Structures
1.
Amino acid sequence: MPATLIGLIWLAYFIFRKWKFRKYLALLGFVCFIVFTNDFLANSFLKAWQTEPANLGKIKAQNYTYGVLLTGMTNTLKEPKDRVYFNQNADRLLQSMMLFEQGIIDTLYISGGGATALRKDLQESRVLLSYLESINFPIEKVIIEDQSRNTVESARFASDFISKQRKILLITSASHMPRAMGCFAKEDFNVVAYPAVYFTNDELISLSMFLPSYEALLKWTILFKEWMGYSAYWLAGYL
């Protein structure tokens, strides 16, 4: 990750005091700091990678039996357990609920386990189901898959619940969508992307975008994670 990379470079600068090229480590660390905290660069690269927003008009013109929601939006380890704690990816669920309420999808299919070795009861899809129950969402229109541990398994296990002949609407983060679409296409699903969770902005260039910021570091971290994930999936033949 970018922050780790910067830290390791500067740590090497202090450790290798007698190395004749030591000064280049300091320069490299400074350059990496400038690049990875530059919001203009981070915003531009992340926008180029992520999937563009779906055309809602075209989406509404078609009916989808299933909206497939990928998990990764709650903190299942937080106490007390009488509520659901959401993170920044909660937009996935909010967009899914909007699509259901507008009649664009008939059934919400939630895919994701995420249980830990010590707690087998922490499947995130079940946590989300309990939240939907608490707000009186029509549970008879919800299907959960609680065994998958990653996007590959989400795509594979979906065939146990959904016919591959049906067109499905895939809902996940815009930065994660290229990898998710590849996995579902690999399993021969007829899938349409509905990306959510955008960390980028479309405002005009401003001076503040060139000042060091932690938001830029966050965007680069998301981008690095997806680049590495996509590359690993491609090498493994999952895409």
Note: DSSP finds nine helices and five strands in the chain.
2.
Amino acid sequence: MTEIERGKSAGRSDSWMRLEEAARATFWGYLGCEVVQADSRQSLIRLKLRPEHLNLLGIVHGGVLASLMDNAMGLVVMIGSPDDKTVTANMNIQYLKSANSGTLSCEARLVHRSRRSFTLQSSIYGEDGDLLAWGSGSFRLVI
């Protein structure tokens, strides 16, 4: 169980339910992401690994992990600034451990917000609770 799951109930919010529904026809839906909890400060999303998420070594592809982090952090930003368009400006990821099956959980937390930018951190956990990757990202408003 992740820190967000321990600290919050997984009640569904209308704002992110609408976002998730709209995203089903995009890369989000293609990956298979599912929102568990989200608000303007943090989010928790999950991804059940499928064979197409793996690389030739039989482990989850780093790009899938990066996309999972980008989606979790971006969700916080979209909820926190619903009337604005935002883009990922930078992401840094540390790959710590591999996985090849099960469900991944990715949590993201807002670290700092200014008038035009957001800074977040994110962690991905395997089904056994092991930390697989840690990262940070900055997002900016498109003006």
Note: The first strand starts at residue 34 and ends at 38.
3.
Amino acid sequence: MEVNLSGSVVLVTGGVRGVGAGISRVFLDAGATVVACARRPADTPVDSGGRAVDFLPCDVRDPDSVREMIDAIVAKYGRLDTVVNNAGGAPFAMAADASANFHAKIVQLNLLAPLLVSQIANEVMQRQQSGGSIVMISSVSGHRPSPGTAAYGAAKAGVDSLVSSLAIEWAPKVRMNSVIVGMVHTESSHLHYGDADGIDAVARTVPLGRMAAPEDIGHTAAFLASPLASYLSGSSLLVHGGGEKPAFLEASTADVPAVSGHG
């Protein structure tokens, strides 16, 4: 079985760079009409197989901007079947040093903005006979310590909580799910992991031996949006290559460190 989204209309927020561009390309390959939004267009077009995204400028933190964008999508295409809330991120800043305004902006972008986009999209989807699907792009930072990006991690934990609540509130018309993303190799990886040697060294810490490609995240999002996942709602799927090895395994001097019990 293959994911076939021909005839569907998909909005990918932040869908022209990094992980978002990979998500957009996967949905294009699956046959969907893809609308990608960001505050500014990409330096190079996001396309695949001779088809390109329809770009709309939007500040996903601004209610008027979001409503104008979604109204434009419905006016042009007549429907909105899937939203992938991908826009987000955070610069490195230790919590004790960051201002209250900094923390508020991080939470607004990574928690309140996807809630806002979802609310307005839900209004459209509830009126459609086929309903719709909303996929939140979350992060492992919401499920393990996130030093240097504490507010971001807290916001992503909130996203996964939102999914479990909205899956109940908006059922049966709208399915809500999230993708909990681990480390991804993008054009910005050097900002997080250093030079090529640093990126390779970090990749070796992943049990599967590599970081995710943006398309890995896109494939998961496309699956969740597809009829193959028609009974999935309120779920959070881990896409992290097996996770992170426990630190005590490296520190232990035992020949075969115990991995069970209470520590």
Note: Residues 9-239 form a domain with the Rossmann fold fold (CATH 3.40.50.720).
4.
Amino acid sequence: MERVLIADDHPMVRDGLRTVIAVAFDRCELFEASSLEEATSVIEREGDFDLVLLDLNMPGATGFSGLIELRERFPSVPVVIVSAAQERGLARAALAAGAAGFVPKSLRRSAIVDALKQVLAGNIYAPEIEEGELAANAEDTEILRRIDSLTPQQKVVLRLVVAGKLNKQIAYDLDVSMTTVKAHVSAILSKLKVFSRTQAVILVNKVNFGAS
């Protein structure tokens, strides 16, 4: 049985998606949320979901901030952006920010069902992206997956590394020992699968990690 959370501040949109999913999937437990805070509470209360359908702009979120927050707090939960906005490059940006797919609200019901089935099967869905772009986004998704594997403290250290700070400066800023900083940097390089700080910076800059 799939467990799906529909997070959208418009009741009619939630009703429409609920109907589409209920008809297409015989056994599916559906939950709803009308704000990012409510969505977060539902995931914390109910545990893992097979899929979260997230509106791009809703109370508590602007742009990709809601997506980024959910990806950081619940890295194992696939999040699909469902949006009325269709600006060129928006889907690619959503995937780069960690979305498992981008579904325009203007799609036919059958196309929405196909998109959700692809994501549930472990694939990435975005209708506007060409194959070459999709390959680039697959690389971005892998980079984000590696970043997600870092602990919160390791992410803090990585941001300082990206900012050009030396180990002794990081130790001073975080009020920890040099040994601790070196241990964090070593773990970061290992999880990112790179061999130097420079490689780490180049890698994470591809997904604008330092700016997020």
Note: Residues 57 and 63 are 6 Å apart (CA to CA).
